[in-house]
Amino acid sequence: MGPAKFQRYVFLRTRTNIAYAVDELADLANVAGRVEILRCRPGTPMWDNAIVLRFKGGVTPAEVAEDWRDPLAGFDYWAIHDGIEAVAEPPPGARATMFFERHGAECASYPTVAQIFLRFDRNDRDQDRTTELIIQALKSPALTVFHMESGRIVFARTEEPAKLMLRRVEKYAKSLFALAITDHDDDTVDLRREANHLWSSVHLSELIDEPDNDNELDAETNLPDGWRRPGRRRVRHP
Fold it and tell me: pTM of the full predicted structure?
């Protein structure tokens, strides 16, 4: 068991646009319950084919992976970590594991990992170069640990506050569609130095429940304007 007061982070990459990942989200909703989801603006997930969730609890990443084993199998890729040094991902030894092995925690009793969430414009052809410049600007041990369409997630071993890290990378982030930085204390800022909309509490079924009309669709599913979902799965609410 891990410290219950710290967040567990779950990275999920879908095989298609999130709007069409109905079965995957429905299966996950039945085991995950209520979580917080990262958004780049109110009502808009950070990426088109990936989501980041977090929740507090005493379970280890390995225990979460075991409890969620069946629904996780429906995703293209996933990783779960505790911000300290424990991580679960397929296959073992992949990028997030590599980061923790290279940059082990000096104190393994509290989180010392910051997370930088990058969303690129779809036409940006310099995503890897921009990511590398941001990593260099952090001036801390850092590594890209998760890739998705038009996006990256970077880990950095630092106890600097999110606002200071933002100042370090800001000049390299001008071409980004969105950026969010979560520091080791779970404080998060974006390019507008705002935080109130970045994490929102949802039951995952709220992303796929079908309301009665188009106006309710955008309001109740928290999907971007114009997204539509082809089918519906019934979800068991806890």
Answer: 0.83
